[in-house]
Amino acid sequence: MRKGSVPRGLPCLSLLLFLFLALPASPALGSGEPPLVVGAVAPHHNVAGALIDRLYERIREQIPHPARVILIGPDHFMRARQNIVFSAADWRTPAGLLRADAEGASSLKGAALRQDGVPRRDHGITEHIPRVRKFFGDVPVLPLVVKSCATDLQVLRVRRALEALLRKRGGVVILSMDLSHYKPRAESDAEDERTLAVLCAFRLDELNGLDVDCPRGARLLLTLLQGLGAVRSELLERSNSADFLPNASRTTGHATVLFTR
What we know:
CATH class: Alpha Beta
Low-confidence stretches: 1-7, 9-31
Number of helices: 9
Oligomer: single chain
Largest sheet: 9 strands, mixed
CATH superfamily: LigB-like
Distance between the termini: 61 Å
Shape: globular
Strand content: 15-25%
Number of domains: 1
Protein backbone atom coordinates (compact mmCIF):
# COMPACT_ATOMS: atom_id res chain seq x y z
CA MET A 1 0.00 0.00 0.00
CA ARG A 2 1.40 3.39 -0.99
CA LYS A 3 2.12 6.00 1.68
CA GLY A 4 -0.87 8.32 2.19
CA SER A 5 -3.39 6.03 0.48
CA VAL A 6 -6.72 5.16 2.15
CA PRO A 7 -7.10 1.48 3.09
CA ARG A 8 -9.71 -0.29 1.01
CA GLY A 9 -13.06 -0.47 2.86
CA LEU A 10 -12.35 2.41 5.27
CA PRO A 11 -14.86 4.88 3.72
CA CYS A 12 -17.57 2.26 4.14
CA LEU A 13 -16.65 1.78 7.81
CA SER A 14 -16.69 5.52 8.37
CA LEU A 15 -20.16 5.75 6.86
CA LEU A 16 -21.44 2.98 9.10
CA LEU A 17 -19.97 4.70 12.16
CA PHE A 18 -21.64 7.97 11.16
CA LEU A 19 -25.03 6.29 10.70
CA PHE A 20 -24.69 4.53 14.05
CA LEU A 21 -23.94 7.77 15.87
CA ALA A 22 -26.90 9.47 14.17
CA LEU A 23 -29.39 6.92 15.50
CA PRO A 24 -31.61 8.06 18.39
CA ALA A 25 -30.43 6.80 21.76
CA SER A 26 -32.08 3.61 22.94
CA PRO A 27 -33.92 3.68 26.27
CA ALA A 28 -31.71 2.80 29.18
CA LEU A 29 -31.94 -0.74 30.43
CA GLY A 30 -34.59 -1.01 33.12
CA SER A 31 -36.37 2.22 32.09
CA GLY A 32 -39.58 0.23 31.50
CA GLU A 33 -42.94 1.61 30.43
CA PRO A 34 -44.16 5.12 31.21
CA PRO A 35 -45.84 5.35 34.63
CA LEU A 36 -49.43 4.15 34.57
CA VAL A 37 -52.18 6.77 34.67
CA VAL A 38 -55.84 5.83 35.08
CA GLY A 39 -58.64 8.35 34.65
CA ALA A 40 -62.32 8.06 35.48
CA VAL A 41 -65.65 9.85 35.53
CA ALA A 42 -67.81 9.13 38.58
CA PRO A 43 -71.00 10.60 40.03
CA HIS A 44 -71.24 12.32 43.41
CA HIS A 45 -75.00 11.94 43.85
CA ASN A 46 -75.25 9.88 47.04
CA VAL A 47 -77.98 7.60 45.67
CA ALA A 48 -75.39 6.29 43.18
CA GLY A 49 -73.00 5.14 45.91
CA ALA A 50 -72.94 1.52 44.74
CA LEU A 51 -71.84 2.61 41.24
CA ILE A 52 -69.05 4.69 42.71
CA ASP A 53 -67.82 1.80 44.85
CA ARG A 54 -67.73 -0.57 41.88
CA LEU A 55 -65.75 1.99 39.89
CA TYR A 56 -63.16 2.23 42.67
CA GLU A 57 -62.88 -1.54 42.68
CA ARG A 58 -62.12 -1.49 38.94
CA ILE A 59 -59.57 1.28 39.35
CA ARG A 60 -57.85 -0.69 42.12
CA GLU A 61 -57.57 -3.66 39.76
CA GLN A 62 -55.71 -1.44 37.28
CA ILE A 63 -53.47 0.39 39.74
CA PRO A 64 -53.60 -1.00 43.30
CA HIS A 65 -51.06 1.42 44.77
CA PRO A 66 -51.25 4.76 42.94
CA ALA A 67 -48.60 7.37 43.60
CA ARG A 68 -51.37 9.96 44.06
CA VAL A 69 -55.07 10.55 43.50
CA ILE A 70 -56.29 13.77 41.89
CA LEU A 71 -59.97 14.63 42.40
CA ILE A 72 -61.70 17.16 40.15
CA GLY A 73 -65.18 18.45 41.02
CA PRO A 74 -67.58 21.35 40.42
CA ASP A 75 -68.08 24.40 42.59
CA HIS A 76 -71.66 23.63 43.61
CA PHE A 77 -72.05 26.53 46.03
CA MET A 78 -69.99 29.23 44.24
CA ARG A 79 -67.57 29.62 47.14
CA ALA A 80 -64.33 29.62 45.16
CA ARG A 81 -62.54 32.97 44.93
CA GLN A 82 -60.92 31.96 41.64
CA ASN A 83 -62.12 29.75 38.79
CA ILE A 84 -59.90 26.82 39.85
CA VAL A 85 -59.01 26.22 43.49
CA PHE A 86 -57.42 23.32 45.35
CA SER A 87 -56.90 21.96 48.85
CA ALA A 88 -53.51 21.28 50.43
CA ALA A 89 -54.85 20.10 53.81
CA ASP A 90 -55.01 16.59 55.27
CA TRP A 91 -58.37 14.81 55.61
CA ARG A 92 -59.73 12.76 58.49
CA THR A 93 -61.86 9.84 57.35
CA PRO A 94 -63.54 6.88 59.12
CA ALA A 95 -60.65 4.70 57.89
CA GLY A 96 -57.93 7.06 59.09
CA LEU A 97 -55.91 10.06 57.96
CA LEU A 98 -55.63 10.88 54.26
CA ARG A 99 -52.59 13.02 53.49
CA ALA A 100 -52.63 16.07 51.26
CA ASP A 101 -50.45 15.85 48.15
CA ALA A 102 -47.85 18.47 49.09
CA GLU A 103 -45.90 18.03 45.87
CA GLY A 104 -49.06 18.36 43.80
CA ALA A 105 -50.18 21.45 45.68
CA SER A 106 -46.77 23.04 45.16
CA SER A 107 -46.94 22.35 41.43
CA LEU A 108 -50.21 24.30 41.16
CA LYS A 109 -48.80 27.54 42.55
CA GLY A 110 -49.39 30.24 39.97
CA ALA A 111 -51.90 28.08 38.07
CA ALA A 112 -54.68 27.84 40.70
CA LEU A 113 -55.55 29.22 44.13
CA ARG A 114 -55.23 27.31 47.39
CA GLN A 115 -58.56 27.55 49.23
CA ASP A 116 -58.86 24.55 51.55
CA GLY A 117 -62.40 25.27 52.71
CA VAL A 118 -64.01 24.98 49.27
CA PRO A 119 -63.28 21.30 48.51
CA ARG A 120 -63.85 20.49 52.19
CA ARG A 121 -67.45 21.73 52.03
CA ASP A 122 -68.44 20.49 48.58
CA HIS A 123 -70.03 17.06 48.19
CA GLY A 124 -68.44 16.73 44.74
CA ILE A 125 -65.20 16.15 46.66
CA THR A 126 -66.34 14.85 50.05
CA GLU A 127 -68.33 12.01 48.49
CA HIS A 128 -65.03 10.61 47.21
CA ILE A 129 -62.52 11.32 49.97
CA PRO A 130 -63.55 8.38 52.24
CA ARG A 131 -63.46 6.05 49.24
CA VAL A 132 -59.96 7.13 48.28
CA ARG A 133 -58.81 6.21 51.80
CA LYS A 134 -60.79 2.96 51.86
CA PHE A 135 -59.62 1.63 48.49
CA PHE A 136 -56.07 3.02 48.28
CA GLY A 137 -54.97 3.60 51.86
CA ASP A 138 -53.07 6.72 52.88
CA VAL A 139 -52.31 7.89 49.35
CA PRO A 140 -51.54 11.58 48.71
CA VAL A 141 -54.71 13.31 47.49
CA LEU A 142 -55.07 16.54 45.52
CA PRO A 143 -58.68 17.84 45.30
CA LEU A 144 -59.54 20.60 42.81
CA VAL A 145 -62.78 22.53 42.29
CA VAL A 146 -63.37 23.92 38.81
CA LYS A 147 -66.00 26.56 38.06
CA SER A 148 -68.03 26.34 34.87
CA CYS A 149 -66.68 29.76 33.85
CA ALA A 150 -63.02 28.69 33.94
CA THR A 151 -61.29 29.83 30.75
CA ASP A 152 -59.37 27.64 28.33
CA LEU A 153 -56.13 29.34 29.43
CA GLN A 154 -56.82 28.65 33.11
CA VAL A 155 -57.60 25.01 32.34
CA LEU A 156 -54.46 24.75 30.20
CA ARG A 157 -52.21 26.07 32.98
CA VAL A 158 -53.54 23.55 35.47
CA ARG A 159 -53.42 20.74 32.93
CA ARG A 160 -49.74 21.39 32.22
CA ALA A 161 -48.90 21.34 35.92
CA LEU A 162 -50.79 18.10 36.50
CA GLU A 163 -49.36 16.45 33.40
CA ALA A 164 -45.80 17.13 34.55
CA LEU A 165 -46.71 15.76 37.96
CA LEU A 166 -48.22 12.53 36.62
CA ARG A 167 -45.40 11.90 34.18
CA LYS A 168 -43.06 11.29 37.10
CA ARG A 169 -44.79 8.39 38.86
CA GLY A 170 -48.31 8.13 37.44
CA GLY A 171 -51.51 8.13 39.47
CA VAL A 172 -55.30 8.22 39.33
CA VAL A 173 -57.41 11.17 38.15
CA ILE A 174 -61.13 11.11 39.00
CA LEU A 175 -63.65 13.62 37.66
CA SER A 176 -66.56 13.82 40.09
CA MET A 177 -69.42 14.82 37.79
CA ASP A 178 -73.14 14.12 37.60
CA LEU A 179 -74.83 14.16 34.22
CA SER A 180 -78.19 15.71 33.23
CA HIS A 181 -80.18 17.52 35.91
CA TYR A 182 -83.88 18.12 36.58
CA LYS A 183 -85.33 16.56 33.43
CA PRO A 184 -87.97 13.86 32.89
CA ARG A 185 -86.48 10.39 32.64
CA ALA A 186 -86.74 9.96 28.86
CA GLU A 187 -85.23 13.37 28.19
CA SER A 188 -82.49 12.74 30.73
CA ASP A 189 -81.58 9.39 29.18
CA ALA A 190 -81.32 10.92 25.71
CA GLU A 191 -79.14 13.77 26.98
CA ASP A 192 -76.85 11.40 28.87
CA GLU A 193 -76.47 9.20 25.79
CA ARG A 194 -75.13 12.19 23.90
CA THR A 195 -72.86 13.23 26.77
CA LEU A 196 -71.27 9.82 27.13
CA ALA A 197 -70.61 9.57 23.40
CA VAL A 198 -68.76 12.90 23.57
CA LEU A 199 -66.73 11.95 26.66
CA CYS A 200 -65.75 8.48 25.48
CA ALA A 201 -64.66 9.77 22.06
CA PHE A 202 -62.74 12.80 23.43
CA ARG A 203 -64.83 15.20 21.31
CA LEU A 204 -63.53 18.31 23.04
CA ASP A 205 -65.29 20.80 20.78
CA GLU A 206 -68.68 19.50 21.99
CA LEU A 207 -68.09 19.69 25.74
CA ASN A 208 -69.55 23.15 26.29
CA GLY A 209 -73.00 22.11 25.08
CA LEU A 210 -73.42 19.19 27.48
CA ASP A 211 -75.84 19.03 30.40
CA VAL A 212 -73.31 18.17 33.11
CA ASP A 213 -72.38 19.93 36.35
CA CYS A 214 -68.62 20.17 35.74
CA PRO A 215 -68.04 20.90 32.03
CA ARG A 216 -64.69 22.62 32.51
CA GLY A 217 -63.54 19.83 34.77
CA ALA A 218 -64.39 17.47 31.91
CA ARG A 219 -62.14 19.47 29.60
CA LEU A 220 -59.36 19.36 32.17
CA LEU A 221 -59.68 15.59 32.56
CA LEU A 222 -59.84 14.75 28.85
CA THR A 223 -57.00 17.03 27.76
CA LEU A 224 -54.86 15.75 30.63
CA LEU A 225 -55.49 12.13 29.70
CA GLN A 226 -54.82 12.86 26.03
CA GLY A 227 -51.45 14.35 26.90
CA LEU A 228 -50.58 11.25 28.91
CA GLY A 229 -51.81 8.75 26.33
CA ALA A 230 -54.64 7.34 28.47
CA VAL A 231 -57.25 7.51 25.72
CA ARG A 232 -58.90 4.10 25.85
CA SER A 233 -62.41 4.56 27.28
CA GLU A 234 -64.85 2.07 28.77
CA LEU A 235 -68.37 2.93 29.89
CA LEU A 236 -68.91 0.79 32.97
CA GLU A 237 -72.40 1.65 34.24
CA ARG A 238 -75.24 4.14 33.85
CA SER A 239 -78.11 5.00 36.15
CA ASN A 240 -80.66 7.68 36.89
CA SER A 241 -82.01 8.97 40.18
CA ALA A 242 -85.41 7.63 39.09
CA ASP A 243 -83.93 4.12 39.51
CA PHE A 244 -83.66 4.80 43.24
CA LEU A 245 -86.38 7.41 43.84
CA PRO A 246 -89.64 6.19 42.27
CA ASN A 247 -92.03 8.69 40.67
CA ALA A 248 -89.33 11.37 40.40
CA SER A 249 -90.18 13.85 37.65
CA ARG A 250 -86.93 15.85 37.98
CA THR A 251 -84.05 13.43 37.68
CA THR A 252 -80.25 13.31 37.72
CA GLY A 253 -78.17 11.10 35.44
CA HIS A 254 -75.07 9.17 36.52
CA ALA A 255 -72.36 7.17 34.79
CA THR A 256 -68.98 5.63 35.53
CA VAL A 257 -66.34 5.70 32.78
CA LEU A 258 -62.81 4.31 32.97
CA PHE A 259 -59.91 5.63 30.88
CA THR A 260 -56.62 3.77 30.45
CA ARG A 261 -53.62 3.81 28.13
